[in-house]
């Protein structure tokens, strides 16, 4: 759903609404933090893939290597071809490309993820600011209440 | 004071309240479905962009079950475009559905508030009648 920009005059809100608003923003912040962790992980994975491809393109055909079957079991193998690699581009589609193009692809993906991360970071800063404003207002309200009592 | 009238009002209120809850559940369901489609849309968008960058003689495969099956790049592109079109259509449908739900929800909310005040008024008049007697 597109976020609806709306201005709320905090001074007109009741304290319990302030608290609700605060909780809502805190929850949103948490979701964004979660997303940015996921994005960072994905960016890291694409970075690793890119580096692997780079080293693969420097190898020659017939070069002996150890292939991981699991994370701790390896078998001796030979590089059969360094001409093409298959890239998983999503929704079940794989594209045959040269390793160089593969590296390019990984770099593009990392860049895209970084852009998203920047966007999320900006949103998080905005939300944090909102949260601060709400907190200030809430505290001011609490003090006023105390003075009246 | 007719107790029967009071009872039927309360019952009607309960029915309406349940309908309201049902609406809320529908809205939540709509939301989940929408998120799924948005996710698919983004993934398909990405795939389409990659496919568009390809040369005509590029090799494209599709994972069907456990097997990779070779596809014609042009055909693959049109398939993904079709898929995107379908997703867009679904998103539009969900949008209008949500609007419909929201309108209904607002109406129901007003109706519920009115019924509540009616019941309160009736209870009060009954109470004062008892007090006078």
TrEMBL record, chain A:
GO cellular component: cytoplasm; prefoldin complex
GO terms classed as biological process: protein folding; response to cold; RNA polymerase I assembly; RNA polymerase II core complex assembly; RNA polymerase III assembly
GO MF term set: unfolded protein binding
A family per Pfam: Prefoldin
Domain of life: Eukaryota
InterPro entries, per the entry: PFD_alpha_archaea, Prefoldin, Prefoldin_subunit_alpha
Family indicated by similarity: Belongs to the prefoldin subunit alpha family.
Protein name: Prefoldin subunit 5
Organism: [Myrmecia] bisecta
Taxonomic lineage: Eukaryota, Viridiplantae, Chlorophyta, core chlorophytes, Trebouxiophyceae
Automatic annotation (TrEMBL), chain B:
Cellular compartments per GO CC: cytoplasm; prefoldin complex
Alphabetical keyword list: Chaperone, Coiled coil
Gene Ontology process terms (BP): chaperone-mediated protein complex assembly; protein folding; response to cold
Coiled-coil features, chain-numbered ranges: 6-57, 84-118
Record-level Gene Ontology MF annotations: protein-folding chaperone binding; unfolded protein binding
Family: Belongs to the prefoldin subunit beta family.
PANTHER family referenced in this protein's UniProt entry, alphabetically: PREFOLDIN SUBUNIT 6
Name this polypeptide is given: Prefoldin subunit 6
